[in-house]
Design goal:
This is GAF domain-containing protein. By secondary structure, this protein is α+β, with helices and mostly antiparallel strands. The chain has three domains: about 210 residues, no CATH class; about 170 residues, GAF domain (Beta-Lactamase); about 375 residues, no CATH class. It has 25 helices and 23 strands. Helix 18 packs antiparallel against helix 21, helix 20 runs antiparallel to helix 21 and helix 23 packs across helix 25. The two termini are about 70 Å apart.
């Protein structure tokens, strides 16, 4: 049996004590006292030739254990054996002998299955470091390849402790074997410049072509806190991307505090309200104070003395005995929650940046092991935690701004460069704003495209839902008054209720809903509050009545809720589809895009060279955009039809597109914070957009827009011809049916001579991705 390295190696290993014995002989010749004290060791060594020729069998160290202790007495003083972490072995090889008492105990605590190996050492690194030993000691190349070699060793409680080690190689020598390759200066230079070239190192240093003879003295020291802090820094750098972060940070803090069940958490602080609150950071680190709770807690209702100190002095605060805290503050929600979770001790460390408290870092244990002395260990990690939490909050704020920018403002990415360009004119050095006047943000000669997917008869459906809810509410009140006792004048109240029910039999007027709601809130409900206190039976009936009302509006909100939710779901689905698809189309050529939610969704598109002056523009991009708009409107309708059965209120949608033959200018309105057409002539376009969905087919009472059909409004023959080609493309794809009709429209104010293409959707088509739009 021979010693084998953990990975492929340029070395053949041979344990030898030749250099140690030679040195002992030399010292004996110089010092008679030394000669006397070591005579026995040298005499015994002379009878064991393997000590000089080399040891290749690990059993040797078992058979000669007692002699080796005697041989190593000067190098391993017995009085230091319980303090030093030390052994003999080879550098970077997983074999040690003659360990100190402390080292043996550390390995015993790690368990029988523990494999002692250098943390992070890979085969290539292992091979190159071994070759560097040859370059340094044989070729005398001054290479400083020292790096922190670390062993991760668990203690008896399973806590990972980190040990650095140092090698003393005074008793080692490196010799070439017959199959070695002698290196030239150019070989060595090539190696030094190509660390990562594994084949090159194998070529210049063939495996097992050198002998590593002797032994090394290996000394370990406990660097647990130092390494744990370094690991923490590495983890915090990628905190957003690390799905296993919580477990790894728990392991790191257990190493720092040497507590096996330690866990960490985080609770944000709203200083303005003096409350502990949840934050998105809790998706990464839980909050022990708030976990399992349905609300945020005001800090003053907790352990007042402790948390006043924490929030005002902003220093660490420790509860070393939660059981006692729970007894002292049994009414505290947080104390109650932490006590029931099994936590016995806890440290709170405020995260403070620029004199602003961001939150509380929590260190917990289910043992009474955390105290104010241990809390001071937080000093070594707090700078990294503070920087990380600030970075997370900055990142969160950036995401919030992105959402606000996307959802609530009119500055589309396609025009953002213009706003940025103008803003940069006003920023001088040191972020001082200049006094330059702000210029208008304007884009000229853009071709507009307009489309809408509208909910058919939404006003009629809404009025129907309102009438049903009001009728149910009035009838509930009627039934309630018939059952109540002690009502002074029930007939008068019932008469008013009947008169309002009669109003609802006719078409709903503009003020009908308001009048009925006012009657209920100002007359009926105050009277019910009086009657409720007269007897228990009334109280039960009235309480049951109020429970059936919507808590926000204090009215019956059943049919209206179904209608509102259905409209919201339709709008959200259409908007999501439009937003997603326009992002994809922007890659071809930038165009300005905006949408508006009403009872349905309208969208405006503008394209032209002024939007992207650095790019070349041609009509091809406009044609692509027109076809894209048609395709997306069709996709919206077809997907809606596949999912409309899921609506709680039955609704239909209609779609149309306006083909406008000219170009126009748009300008950003600072007062409205949105773009609008520029000039009185261009304003005609806005008038047309507002009226075309109400247009009728000429000489009839038929509305142009119909469920199941796409309508394309145009005024010029060239627009008709272009869109007929696009329609034909979609018919070939099976998206549209073959029933094209050209209809004339009745003249409206500002709208004369318009026609429309009308064609039916093919709802059986399966070319669209039905899954990416939110289900409705």
């Amino acid at each position: 049996m021979s010693f084998k390295p953990a990975f492929k190696s340029p070395f053949v290993l041979s344990f030898s004590f030749e250099k140690l014995l030679n040195q002992m002989h030399q010292e004996s010749e110089k010092d008679s006292d030394y000669a006397i004290s070591h005579a026995s060791v040298l005499e015994k060594a002379a009878q064991i030739p393997e000590l000089l020729t080399g040891i290749n069998d690990p059993n040797f160290f078992v058979e000669h254990r007692d002699f080796l202790k005697e041989l190593f007495r000067d190098l391993f003083p017995p009085l230091l054996s319980k303090n030093e972490i030390k052994a003999a072995g080879f550098p970077f090889y997983n074999y040690f002998f003659n360990p100190s008492e402390r080292f043996k105990k550390i390995l015993q605590n790690a368990g029988q299955d523990f494999d002692l190996f250098i943390n992070g050492m890979d085969p290539h690194q292992y091979y190159v470091i071994s070759c560097c030993l040859i370059l340094r000691d044989y070729y005398k190349i001054p290479i400083n390849f020292s790096m922190p070699f670390i062993f991760d060793i668990p203690n008896e409680e399973g806590i990972i402790q980190h040990y650095r080690f140092l090698n003393n190689i005074d008793f080692m020598e490196i010799k070439p074997l017959g199959n070695h390759k002698e290196l030239t200066e150019s070989d060595i230079k090539e190696l030094l410049e190509n660390y990562d070239d594994q084949d090159l190192w194998l070529e210049k240093f063939p495996p097992e072509s050198w002998e590593l003879k002797g032994f090394a003295l290996i000394t370990f020291y406990d660097a647990t806190v130092e390494i744990a802090v370094s690991n923490l820094k590495s983890k915090l750098i990628n905190i957003e991307d690390d799905k296993n972060l919580k477990n790894e940070i728990n392991s790191i803090f257990r190493s720092i505090f040497m507590i096996s069940d330690l866990e960490v958490g985080y609770t944000a602080v709203n200083v303005a309200d003096n409350t502990f609150v949840r934050s998105p950071i809790n998706y990464i680190l839980d909050s022990f104070m708030l976990s399992g709770s349905t609300s945020d807690f005001a800090s003053e209702i907790t352990w007042e003395k402790g948390f006043k100190t924490l929030l005002q002095s902003r220093k660490y605060f420790t509860f070393s005995d939660i059981d006692q805290i729970y007894k002292d503050f049994p009414q505290s929600h947080i104390a109650n929650h932490i006590y029931k979770s099994g936590i016995k001790s806890i440290i709170f460390a405020p995260i403070i940046k620029d004199k602003r408290i961001l939150g509380i870092f929590e260190i917990t244990s289910k043992q009474k092991s955390l105290n104010s002395i241990l809390a001071n260990k937080m000093e070594i990690v707090m700078p990294y935690l503070v920087d990380t939490m600030e970075r997370l909050y900055v990142g969160l704020e950036t995401k919030l701004q992105a959402i606000i920018h996307r959802e609530y403002t009119a500055i589309h990415p396609s025009v953002l460069w213009k706003f940025r360009e103008e803003a940069e004119r006003h920023i001088e050095f040191y972020d001082v704003e200049s006094d330059l006047p702000y210029q208008n943000i304007k884009f000229e000669n853009l071709t507009p495209l307009y489309g809408q997917t509208d909910i058919k008869n939404s006003s009629i459906s809404r009025n129907s839902a309102i009438k049903q809810d009001l009728s149910i509410h009035l009838m509930d009140i009627e039934i309630l008054f018939q059952k109540l006792n002690s009502c002074k004048d029930p007939n008068s109240m019932l008469a008013k209720i009947h008169s309002y029910l009669a109003f609802l039999e006719d078409d709903l007027k503009a003020d009908t809903e308001t009048k009925i709601q006012h009657f209920i809130s100002s007359k009926v409900h105050p009277l019910l509050d009086e009657l409720k206190i007269e007897n228990a039976e009334n109280n039960l009936l009235i309480t049951s009545y109020f429970k059936n009302l919507d808590p926000t509006t204090q009215s019956v909100y059943h049919h209206r809720k179904r209608f509102d939710e259905s409209v919201s779901l339709i709008n959200r689905g259409i908007s999501h589809l439009l937003d997603k698809r326009q992002e994809e189309q922007q890659k071809i050529f930038p165009f300005y895009y905006e949408r508006f939610k009403t009872d349905g969704v309208e969208h405006n598109l503008y394209i032209g060279s002024s939007l992207a002056p650095q790019l070349s523009y041609s009509d091809v991009f406009l044609k692509n955009l027109k076809l894209w708009q048609l395709r997306v409107v069709c996709e919206t309708e077809i997907i809606f039809q596949t999912q409309k059965a899921k609506l709680s209120f039955p609704l239909e949608v209609t779609s149309l597109i306006l083909a406008y033959g000219g170009t126009l200018n748009i300008q950003f309105r600072m007062d409205e914070k949105r773009f609008d057409v520029d000039g009185s002539y261009n304003a005609r376009y806005e008038v047309i957009k507002k009226r075309i969905d109400k247009a009728l087919v000429k000489n009839s009472q038929e509305r142009l827009v119909q469920p199941g059909k796409l309508s394309i409004v145009f005024a010029q023959k060239s627009e008709r011809d272009d869109y007929l080609k696009y329609v034909q493309l979609l018919q070939n794809e099976g998206v549209l049916k073959d029933d094209i009709e050209i209809v004339e429209l009745e003249n409206l104010q500002g709208m004369v001579g318009f026609q429309a293409i009308r064609v039916s959707y093919n709802y059986c088509v399966r070319n669209f991705n039905y899954s990416f739009i939110p289900e409705i």
